[in-house]
């Protein structure tokens, strides 16, 4: 027994020694610790306004694809310093989102491992996600104020993704690659871009950035864990008539790549995480056919984006036959280029410091040094007249037009009476912007737009992530990247230093146009909050932070932004109750499937349902498409996160609380034949507030070979018949 015990102890020591050797060797062969994670952030999928187009009638009515948070952690080999960058399928990241996530992380880990300073959260800018998650009035107007359930869904999902990345942290390397993707974005304000200096424009081939930068995460064995991709294009392939939750073109690109790398896994469930993040997309549209008048088909007036003097009929169209097809095309283009970069030789990011700088800056009063003798100031925020004109991706209403530097006496009067008349000082500061909404000088019921912004830089070796709290135009982004890179290299960084912009990060402050673009007052210039010198203020502050990073010194934290959560107003009615129709129960089938479907056709079933706001079913699904296996069990083939399914909620009787779920599945042409069914899941709410889960299932149906297969077989049969006829004729001749 003693001898056996000694052998066991020896075996344990040997195992421990080998394990330690493997870990040390792996760490020695790698440059960083890396981790990736994904979390479902889908929130209110029905009855809540969508964030992006500011269209009050565009409320959520179901799901096309779910929304996800994709988190990436990089630490030095000693795990002393770490940074986190997260891409979230949302319109933008709000101050309330970041506050909530940081609070949740510090509660979870009970330390200061993850803070305001080393966590960056960036939005993909999908315009097909729920609104109501900001703390500033202007951004919550069309959602009828603050919507707590939307904010909570984002906080929970983002936190979950970071926790998973933390749990997956391991020795690894980072591979950097970049390439050019053309034909997937256009400049939607070309006249403003053309106002930039000719010698500056001459340095670039296009009036949009066509460069795609990608960071791939691999473990010690070289196995790919995930990737983060930066490419500037608005996530507005889905237009303002859409009512289904969607990740838009960025979300579709992520789904395609993750499907490739996670065979057999449902969206959001596999280990490989692919983020297609946002960059300097301020004036960049995915609607590559350009703006045309909907009534005549003619090209819109280029300076003002109008048709007959009005903006409502001027729309840009994507490359597809409809918005769903356009989303697929632009998303697939990004995926295909990323796949090309993924398979190409990449630069291994050398071991280097993992570092960060973060500072709060009051942008309403930054003193900007233009040169040795000239100083100017930024202004309190305001929105110009052309803001109300919207963009060619989603036009505004009334008689507002882009490129308006004069304003309109009627609307100035209305704005002054209803909201606030800007002071003479504010008018002069914001010139030539005619002020429509003087957001910086309105404090009722609370602040309308932020004064204090987050500025943040992450460093991983010689790779620099500049996190900006808004939408930089193409040229604004180029200037900022050049300024940061040149400053770092002037202070000892290598010539290999790469700078990328993480747009729509940490808090939202609308757009950042160049000084020259601001003079034209297109939508982006009118939405540049802090006056004509906004961009130069950013460049100045980020340059100072870059110097501090290069010299290894900290920066002052700056003024603390307000926490306005306790002041939030909400006018969105709650769900009162759900009721099933007479002689029906929740989950019952209202309209059943057909017995048989061909590949390529669409299956549809309707169910008695409750209001989806009762429970967003994060990390779960409102539907499944299931296949009957040989042993009689059912396997899930699709959920509401898949591109091929749609879940639509329809209120059938408001007074009685009746509603139905319309579930559709477009059968892929390569789908296996066999027996299938559709299931529906949800929660109903009683008048007393009790939530009760329910489920239902359609009848079984068969998937058979589609028309294409039958056509091919008929063609082959016809060819064979003709051959036999020819042979018969030949034999008769003989």
UniProtKB/TrEMBL annotation:
<dbReference type="InterPro" id="IPR031331">
    <property type="entry name" value="NEUT/ALK_ceramidase_C"/>
</dbReference>
<dbReference type="InterPro" id="IPR006823">
    <property type="entry name" value="Ceramidase_alk"/>
</dbReference>
<feature type="domain" description="Neutral/alkaline non-lysosomal ceramidase C-terminal">
    <location>
        <begin position="543"/>
        <end position="703"/>
    </location>
</feature>
<dbReference type="GO" id="GO:0046512">
    <property type="term" value="P:sphingosine biosynthetic process"/>
</dbReference>
<dbReference type="InterPro" id="IPR031329">
    <property type="entry name" value="NEUT/ALK_ceramidase_N"/>
</dbReference>
<keyword id="KW-0862">Zinc</keyword>
<feature type="binding site">
    <location>
        <position position="125"/>
    </location>
    <ligand>
        <name>Zn(2+)</name>
    </ligand>
</feature>
<dbReference type="Pfam" id="PF17048">
    <property type="entry name" value="Ceramidse_alk_C"/>
</dbReference>
<dbReference type="GO" id="GO:0046872">
    <property type="term" value="F:metal ion binding"/>
</dbReference>
<dbReference type="GO" id="GO:0017040">
    <property type="term" value="F:N-acylsphingosine amidohydrolase activity"/>
</dbReference>
<protein>
    <recommendedName>
        <fullName>Neutral ceramidase</fullName>
        <ecNumber>3.5.1.23</ecNumber>
    </recommendedName>
</protein>
<dbReference type="Pfam" id="PF04734">
    <property type="entry name" value="Ceramidase_alk"/>
</dbReference>
<dbReference type="GO" id="GO:0042759">
    <property type="term" value="P:long-chain fatty acid biosynthetic process"/>
</dbReference>
<keyword id="KW-0746">Sphingolipid metabolism</keyword>
<keyword id="KW-0378">Hydrolase</keyword>
<keyword id="KW-0443">Lipid metabolism</keyword>
<dbReference type="InterPro" id="IPR038445">
    <property type="entry name" value="NCDase_C_sf"/>
</dbReference>
<feature type="domain" description="Neutral/alkaline non-lysosomal ceramidase N-terminal">
    <location>
        <begin position="32"/>
        <end position="540"/>
    </location>
</feature>
<feature type="binding site">
    <location>
        <position position="511"/>
    </location>
    <ligand>
        <name>Zn(2+)</name>
    </ligand>
</feature>
<dbReference type="GO" id="GO:0046514">
    <property type="term" value="P:ceramide catabolic process"/>
</dbReference>
<feature type="active site" description="Nucleophile">
    <location>
        <position position="285"/>
    </location>
</feature>
<keyword id="KW-0479">Metal-binding</keyword>
<feature type="binding site">
    <location>
        <position position="234"/>
    </location>
    <ligand>
        <name>Zn(2+)</name>
    </ligand>
</feature>
<dbReference type="GO" id="GO:0005576">
    <property type="term" value="C:extracellular region"/>
</dbReference>
<dbReference type="GO" id="GO:0016020">
    <property type="term" value="C:membrane"/>
</dbReference>
<feature type="binding site">
    <location>
        <position position="471"/>
    </location>
    <ligand>
        <name>Zn(2+)</name>
    </ligand>
</feature>
<comment type="similarity">
    <text>Belongs to the neutral ceramidase family.</text>
</comment>
């Amino acid at each position: 027994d003693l001898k056996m015990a000694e052998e066991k102890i020896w075996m344990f020591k040997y195992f421990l020694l080998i394990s330690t050797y493997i870990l040390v060797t792996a760490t020695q062969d790698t440059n960083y610790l890396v981790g990736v994670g994904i979390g479902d952030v889908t929130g209110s999928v029905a009855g809540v306004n969508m964030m992006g187009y500011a269209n009050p009638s565009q409320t959520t009515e179901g799901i096309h694809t779910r929304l996800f948070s994709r988190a990436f952690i990089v630490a030095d080999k000693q795990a002393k310093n770490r940074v986190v960058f997260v891409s979230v399928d949302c319109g933008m990241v709000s101050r309330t989102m970041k506050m909530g996530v940081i609070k949740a992380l510090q509660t979870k880990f009970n330390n200061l491992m993850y803070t305001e300073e080393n966590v960056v959260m960036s939005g993909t800018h999908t315009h097909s996600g729920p609104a109501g998650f900001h703390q500033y009035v202007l951004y919550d107007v069309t959602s009828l104020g603050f919507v707590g359930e939307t904010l909570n869904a984002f906080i929970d999902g983002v936190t979950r993704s970071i926790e998973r990345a933390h749990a997956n942290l391991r020795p690894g390397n980072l591979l950097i690659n970049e390439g050019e993707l053309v034909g997937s974005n256009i400049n939607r304000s070309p006249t403003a871009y053309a106002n930039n200096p000719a010698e500056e424009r001459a340095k670039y081939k296009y009036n949009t950035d066509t460069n795609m930068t990608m960071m791939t995460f691999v473990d010690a064995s070289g196995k790919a864990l995930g990737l983060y991709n930066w490419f500037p294009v608005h996530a507005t392939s889905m237009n303002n008539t859409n009512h289904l939750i969607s990740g838009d073109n960025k979300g579709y690109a992520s789904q395609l790549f993750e499907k490739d790398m996670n065979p057999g896994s449902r969206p959001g469930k596999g280990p490989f995480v692919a983020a297609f993040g946002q960059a300097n997309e301020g004036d960049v549209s995915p609607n590559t056919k350009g703006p045309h008048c909907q009534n005549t088909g003619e090209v819109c007036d280029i300076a003002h984006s109008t048709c007959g003097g009005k903006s409502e009929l001027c729309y840009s169209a994507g490359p597809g036959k409809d918005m769903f097809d356009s989303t697929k095309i632009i998303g697939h283009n990004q995926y295909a280029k990323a796949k090309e970069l993924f398979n190409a030789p990449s630069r291994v990011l050398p071991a280097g410091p993992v570092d960060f700088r973060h500072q709060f800056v009051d942008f309403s009063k930054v003193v900007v040094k233009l040169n040795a003798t000239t100083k100017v100031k930024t202004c309190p925020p305001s929105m110009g007249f052309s803001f109300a004109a919207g963009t060619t991706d989603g036009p505004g209403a009334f008689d507002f037009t882009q490129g308006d530097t004069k304003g309109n006496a009627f609307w100035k009067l209305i704005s002054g009476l209803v909201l606030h008349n800007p002071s003479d000082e504010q008018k002069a500061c914001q010139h030539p912007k005619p002020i429509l909404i003087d957001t910086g000088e309105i404090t009722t019921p609370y602040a309308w737009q932020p004064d204090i912004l987050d500025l943040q830089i992450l460093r991983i070796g010689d790779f620099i992530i500049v996190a900006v709290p808004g939408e930089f135009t193409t040229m604004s982004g180029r200037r900022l990247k050049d300024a940061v890179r040149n400053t770092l290299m002037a202070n000892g960084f290598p010539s290999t230093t790469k700078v990328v912009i993480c747009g729509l990060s940490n808090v939202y402050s609308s757009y950042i146009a160049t000084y020259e673009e601001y003079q034209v007052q297109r939508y982006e210039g009118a939405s540049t909050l802090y006056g004509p010198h906004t961009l130069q203020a950013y460049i100045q502050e980020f340059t100072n932070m870059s110097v501090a990073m290069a010299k290894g010194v900290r920066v002052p934290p700056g003024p603390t932004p307000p926490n306005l959560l306790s002041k939030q107003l909400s006018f969105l009615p709650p769900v009162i109750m759900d009721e099933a129709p007479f002689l029906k129960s929740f989950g019952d089938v209202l309209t059943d499937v057909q017995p048989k479907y061909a590949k390529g056709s669409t299956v549809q079933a309707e169910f008695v349902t409750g209001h989806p706001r009762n429970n967003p079913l994060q990390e779960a699904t409102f539907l499944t498409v299931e296949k009957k296996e040989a042993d009689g069990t059912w396997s899930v083939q699709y959920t509401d996160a898949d591109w091929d399914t749609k879940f639509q909620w329809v209120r059938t009787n408001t007074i009685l609380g009746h509603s139905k779920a319309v579930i559709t599945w477009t059968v892929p042409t390569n789908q296996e034949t066999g027996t299938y069914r559709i299931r529906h899941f949800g929660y109903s709410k009683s008048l007393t507030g009790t939530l009760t889960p329910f489920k239902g299932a359609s009848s079984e149906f068969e998937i058979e070979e589609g028309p294409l297969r039958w056509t091919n077989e008929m063609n082959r049969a016809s060819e064979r018949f003709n051959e036999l006829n020819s042979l018969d004729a030949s034999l008769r001749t003989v």
